[in-house]
Amino acid sequence: MDLIKKQFDEAGNLTIIQLPETFTFRLFNEFRGCYEALDRQGSVEVDLCHVTHLDSSALGMLVAVWEHMGRNREQVRLSNTSIAVRKILMDANFNQLFTIS
């Protein structure tokens, strides 16, 4: 399994999706499966600590999570980004959609 999904609180308010080194279209179905059933009242953290490569499909998948969670910037966080990945996200103006750390 390339993605790891964890819930850290008993109420299921936070789901963390940790991504592998390469985040591309080949992970589409697995990634979608990680957030599709989530309650929109909770929040999602996409942990990018291992990601060194992402393509335009990966950016689209991140937007899909944001849309699924009601287009709420406070409900979807992109965490543990490397300098290179953060630059890609900032160049794409993802800081307007997500909290990025």
Protein described:
It contains 3 helices and 7 strands, in the order E-E-E-H-E-E-H-E-H-E. A hairpin with a 6-residue loop joins strand 1 (4-7) and strand 2 (14-18). The protein has one domain (20-95): STAS domain (Transcription Regulator spoIIAA, 2-Layer Sandwich). Helix content is 30%, strand content 24%. The mean pLDDT is 90. By secondary structure, the protein is an alpha/beta fold. The strands form 2 sheets. The chain has a 5-stranded mixed sheet with strand order 1-2-4-6-7, covered by helices on one side. The chain has a two-stranded parallel sheet with strand order 3-5. The protein has helices at residues 28-35, 56-68, 83-91; strands spanning 4-7, 14-18, 22-23, 43-47, 53-54, 76-79, 99-100. The radius of gyration is 12 Å and the shape is globular. The longest helix is centred in the middle third of the chain and has 13 residues, at 56-68. Helix 1 (28-35) packs parallel to helix 2. This is Anti-sigma-factor antagonist. Residues 4-101 form the STAS domain.
N→C terminal distance? 25 Å
As for the CATH topology, it is: Transcription Regulator spoIIAA
Q: CATH class, anyone? A: Alpha Beta
Total count of domains:
1
Structural class of the helix and strand makeup? alpha/beta
Main beta sheet: 5 strands, mixed
> Count of DSSP E strands?
7
Helix residue percentage: 25-40%
Tell me the Rg in angstroms.
12 Å
**Could you say which overall geometry the principal axes of the C-alpha atoms support?**
globular
Poorly predicted regions are none
**Averaged pLDDT, please?**
90
Q: Please give the order of strands in the largest beta sheet.
A: 1-2-4-6-7
